[in-house]
From TrEMBL:
Protein name as it appears in the record: LysR family transcriptional regulator
Family stated for the protein in its record: Belongs to the LysR transcriptional regulatory family.
Organism, scientific name: Streptomyces chengmaiensis
Family matches, as InterPro entries: LysR_HTH_N (IPR000847), LysR_subst-bd (IPR005119), WH-like_DNA-bd_sf (IPR036388), WH_DNA-bd_sf (IPR036390)
Keywords assigned: DNA-binding, Transcription, Transcription regulation
Length: 314
């Protein structure tokens, strides 16, 4: 009965060493839903190798196999099915705990700090914030718009509770989920030679041309750099202009200063009005995911969770 009983601590220790973290349990639940590690990874906004690594780490921690992987998909083992049932209860309990804690900190959560990369801040976030205001009229929202690297820094420094980025992956130190997809377009004013081309640009032509671009650290620049470097084209030539906002890049392109690379979201009206022309490019993948992100291990709560929910509707 005493604390000094030599047998009373057998097999005990900090729960954190013996129970997988919530992110790993949520991944296992997603594998069970989809029957595919790849689809589960996409739902949670992580890469498939990261998902595989997390499952393997959980299997080592628990000492049992959880998932059988094959070319046809991923299937839970018998032990995995049982652990999944337990995991569901843990995740539901964590959500109930979070809801209670949210009620206790209601005064603090009356203000929501959001950081968003420029394209999302300009073209998507206003609609989400209008919907949040209808749901939470007493919540004051402050927004900082910057490039994706700046968004990550603000989250890691505790200067924002929720962020939105447009890059290739979740920035280091953050967790995230995909809330949409976008593609980049090469655009030029109607008087530019590219606007009159009858054949698509080659990757080499795009890489070698001086373009009007966003600054380094932006999601747009990151995706374009990666697409051209992966194609063996050596990356981008020196920019014609390097500007810090989507609006500035678009205005320069419309003026005829040179071709630019911009989000399709940003140029819908200009393309419809023929102020800009989309220039086809062959064999260059310029698609990207739009992600909500937050500091690793700190799930969005209160207004941040409500805003995240609104971004994933429809």
């Amino acid at each position: 009965m005493s604390d000094g009983d030599g047998g009373s601590g057998a097999g005990r220790g900090p729960l954190a060493h013996r129970v997988p973290d919530l992110g790993a349990l949520e991944l296992l639940l997603a594998v069970a839903r989809h029957g595919s590690l790849g689809r589960a990874a996409r739902e949670l906004g992580i890469t498939q190798p990261a998902a595989s690594s997390r499952i393997r780490a959980m299997e080592r921690q628990l000492g049992v196999g959880l998932v059988d992987r094959s070319p046809r998909g991923s299937r839970l083992t018998d032990a995995g099915a049982l652990v999944t049932d337990w995991a569901r209860r843990v995740v539901e309990a964590a959500e109930a705990f979070d809801a209670g804690a949210q009620a206790l900190r209601g005064r603090r959560d009356s203000r929501l700090r959001v950081a968003a990369s420029m394209t999302i801040a300009e073209y998507l976030l206003p609609g989400w914030l209008i919907a949040l205001r209808a749901q939470r009229p007493d919540t004051a929202v402050s927004l900082h718009a910057g490039n994706s690297a700046e968004v990550a820094r603000r989250l890691l420094d505790g200067e924002a509770e929720l962020g939105f980025v447009e890059g290739l992956a979740v920035p280091e130190g953050l967790d995230g989920v995909i809330v949409g997809h976008d593609r980049l377009l090469v655009v030029a004013a109607p008087g530019h030679a590219w606007a009159r081309r009858r054949t698509p640009l080659t990757a080499a032509e795009l890489a070698g041309a001086p373009l009007i671009l966003r600054e380094r650290g932006s999601g747009t620049r990151q995706v374009l750099d990666a697409a051209l470097t992966d194609g063996g084209n050596g990356g981008l030539a020196e920019p014609l202009l390097e500007l810090a906002s989507t609006t500035a890049v678009k205005a320069a392109a419309v003026s005829g200063a040179g071709p630019a690379v911009l989000s399709e979201l940003a140029v819908t009206e200009e393309l419809a009005a023929r102020r800009l022309v989309a220039v086809p490019v062959e064999r260059v993948r310029l698609a990207r995911a739009l992600r909500a992100v937050w500091p690793r291990g700190r799930r969005p709560a209160g207004p941040a969770r409500d805003l995240l929910s609104l971004t994933r509707r429809g």
